[in-house]
């Protein structure tokens, strides 16, 4: 019998790529690794995870479940990639999130992995994700404003005694004014487990309501997602792209990001 690991992806700031991260990692785990994966939109006030998969008018949503209107399996939909989705209502309404953890944990024996896309606001919505998760990853971008929000998210997670397994540094443009991995780790005392370049293919995929992992599987950002997805199931990802093999020849060893991700991989082995 399966017993799903529940992983929350959080940030206390919008626009850092949290929803795209959940969508693409979930798609990779399902389509590439044949895992049974459930993606949950717990951004109750501003949900859009369903839109990334083309679910614009689901008959039932997580809102209906929490209001006691339908059983939870009635609000779960399967995408062509194989991933399952529990969307929230696009025309959101105020709900009581107290039962969210109970409902989600009732699905553990149906899935290998459950990934939660959380609210970007520090309120009962993001706390519902933190409390329901076995572990957390925090999304940030390489700037001081977002880093301040990251520090707040770390503090909140520690107060709730939920482990933060790493930071995902997204939308890197390679500018000298951006914060680097070393500085972020020094300030947060938390490992950076994925570095994602700014990738216009992610935006293109959004316009087509299809995860970029399906449209542009060899893009830089998607390969970074593949590395983290593999680590989450205790496997090592082998990058077969020519440019990566070329760089590896002249590399002096594993990068700090690779080492951090190896630790994640060992914890999920």
What are the defining features of this structure?
alpha/beta; single chain; globular; Rossmann fold; 269 residues
Quickly describe the structure:
The chain is of the alpha/beta class.
Provide a descriptive summary of the structure in words.
It is built from 11 helices and 8 strands. It has 269 residues and is an alpha/beta fold. It has an 8-stranded mixed beta sheet with strand order 3-4-2-5-1-6-7-8, with helices on both faces. The longest helix has 16 residues, at 144-159. The chain is globular.
CATH architectural type: 3-Layer(aba) Sandwich
Strand order of the largest sheet: 3-4-2-5-1-6-7-8
Q: How would you describe the oligomerization state of the chains in this entry?
A: single chain
Count of separate DSSP helical elements: 11
CATH fold-type name? Rossmann fold
Helical percent range? 25-40%
Q: Mind telling me the CATH superfamily name?
A: P-loop containing nucleotide triphosphate hydrolases
What is the β-strand count?
Answer: 8
- Secondary-structure class: alpha/beta
